[in-house]
Design goal:
2 strands, two-stranded antiparallel ribbon, mainly alpha, 205 residues, transcription regulation, DNA binding, 3% strand, 61% helix, metal ion binding, single chain
């Protein structure tokens, strides 16, 4: 692997450009090929979220602490995560699943104690939505035998995700001072929870 610390980021940006070009031409399969390539590079870079927070680690060391270090802007990784949200349902294999480990591998409640701002709340929501998309895609495509064998995990993760989303809505919608600049009515009782989450994630983006 090249020692240039920016090489991997340049390749990832090129993958994004190829994805955009293919999507503009309606070539979904080719776009998915480049998405898969970008995800594979991200796997090799071992990108994770910081243990003490929600930010992505922007620097990765190969071959141990003394090995070469590579960096990538978090916005580049976040773009691949957004593309992955839909591509996992029509062909993407081996997706980036560090958010699933991040959400299910620790008490995620500690990140939902208090939202300091709208941006902070959206940052808390990102790992949840990623974990939810991967969870849904996995079990939609899973065979009956796989579901039976993995039923204990399914039984644990499904209500846990629902609980986290419910708590998120309670905390986010309860903090009126933070939500005062949103472009949708928090008090609208006709909104379903999924509608509220969608409008929340798309407001002020």
């Amino acid at each position: 692997m090249s020692q240039d610390p920016q090489l991997q980021e340049v390749i990832l940006v090129c993958c994004l450009l190829f994805v955009i070009c293919e999507l503009l031409h309606g070539n979904r399969n080719r776009a998915n090929f480049h998405i898969q390539g970008g995800l594979q590079i991200s796997h090799v870079m071992k990108i994770q979220r910081q243990i003490t927070g929600l930010e992505l680690c922007q620097e990765t060391a190969f071959a141990g602490p003394s090995g070469p270090r590579f960096s990538v802007e978090s916005c580049v990784v976040e773009m691949f995560l957004k593309l992955q949200e839909s591509s996992v349902f029509y062909g993407t294999e081996n997706p980036l699943d560090f958010d699933s480990h991040f959400v299910f591998g620790q008490p995620y409640d500690k990140y939902m104690q208090h939202f300091q701002s709208l941006g902070h709340a959206k940052q808390v929501l990102k790992p949840l939505t990623q974990a939810n998309f991967l969870f849904t895609a996995l079990y939609l495509k899973a065979s009956d035998n796989y579901i039976r064998e993995d039923y204990a995990s399914l039984q644990h993760r499904q209500p846990l995700l629902l609980s986290y989303f419910h708590r998120f809505l309670v905390y986010a919608c309860g903090d009126y001072s933070m939500m005062s600049n949103c472009r949708f009515p928090i008090s609208n009782e006709r909104l379903l929870p999924t509608d509220t989450i969608y409008r929340f994630t798309t407001s002020q983006s």
